[in-house]
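User: Here's a chain of 57 residues. Predict its fold as tokens.
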Amino acid sequence: MGDIVFDLVDYTALVEGTLAVLETLVPGAQRVQTQQGDWSLMRVDRYRTLGNLIAAR
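Assistant: Prediction complete.
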């Protein structure tokens, strides 16, 4: 996951945010800006797999 490349301005917390969601099971959201100046809401949520494991998406 640390090798994912994106064009967001000053956003370096993807790994930390994902780990926090997996540890707390509380979804996370943050406003992020692209290099082109567009704003989006980045969400990290958890889900249960068919093997009954909890993962993030």
